[in-house]
Amino acid sequence: MEFIALLLLVAGLYYFWKAQKKPRVGVTRTRYADLDEQRWDATAEYAPSDPKPIGGLLKLTYKDGGGQETEREVQVRECDTNNPAGYLTGHCRLRDEFRTFRMDRVKRAIDMETGEVLDDLPAWALARYQASPAYAMEELLSTATDALRALFYIGKADGRFTKKEKAVFLQYCQAQSGAHHITLADIDHACASLPLPSMQAFKLICGRLAKLDTATRNAVLEACELMVATEKKIAPEEAEALAYMRKRIGQQTPSPSQ
């Protein structure tokens, strides 16, 4: 009997230990869990979902979820106006940390660069984004996708995308968008979102480009030729792609300087 009692005791202890090992029900961890205490407003109903780079220096009177009101200067880096609450992220000089702020909890905002009191913070943030190079690239990606993918294919045809080739890509983007504040960093970010076409896809792209006006076709072809010309030795893949583009789109009209 004593042996059986001992076995029952051991079994009971084992099942008690297993029960303690089970995860607690009702505890939800988000992808922001490790930042909640330091960066995110823990009482926020939403979290930034589509942050956009902006920049700027603001003086905020901010009321947190606990009702505490503070004044702080924030070097703003990103905004998200798509969320119902609206968000700003940036370096908080008061806490000396990177923080996120709900716009609907900002009681007063002053643009430290202009001294303007901002009556509509989301509108200010959106205007800042629309004046940024990131917005210019986003617009260009939506209106000239085929041209950019053709340039990207030519640049990567030999398996590399050199700094000189990126410079030509940058020059084309600046000329087409009129946004001369676009930088190589913006080009890198844009190319990261561009799917690299296959040769078959490149041919289809050239077919669509061939239907565009002469000036647009010539601008794309000229940029592709300049890109290939940056190489001391032209790779067979680049030569093949450029030859097909010339044939499909049509030889560009030489400039007076040529």
Provide a brief overview of the structure.
The chain has 258 residues and is α+β, with helices and mostly antiparallel strands.
Give the % helix: 40-55%
Structural class: alpha+beta
Low-pLDDT residue intervals, each spanning 5 or more residues: 21-45, 252-258
Number of helices: 9
Helix/strand order: HEEEEEEHHHHHHHH
Q: What distance separates the N and C termini?
A: 106 Å
Number of strands: 6
What general form does the structure show?
extended
Verbal overview:
This protein is α+β, with helices and mostly antiparallel strands and 258 residues long. It folds into 2 domains: 35-130, no CATH class; 133-249, no CATH class. Helix content is 46%, strand content 15%. It has 9 helices and 6 strands, in the order αββββββαααααααα. Strands 1, 2, 3, 4, 5 and 6 form a 6-stranded antiparallel sheet that branches. Helix 4 (145-156) runs antiparallel to helix 5 (163-177) and helix 5 (163-177) packs antiparallel against helix 8 (214-229). The longest helix has 20 residues, at 2-21. The protein is extended, with a radius of gyration of 28 Å. The protein starts with a helix and ends in a 9-residue tail after the last helix.
Mind sketching the topology for me?
Layout: H1 2-21, E1 52-53, E2 57-63, E3 69-80, E4 87-92, E5 97-102, E6 106-111, H2 121-130, H3 133-143, H4 145-156, H5 163-177, H6 184-193, H7 199-209, H8 214-229, H9 236-249
Antiparallel strand pairs: 1-3, 2-3, 2-6, 3-4, 4-5
Helix pairs in contact: 4-5, 4-7, 4-8, 4-9, 5-8, 7-9, 8-9
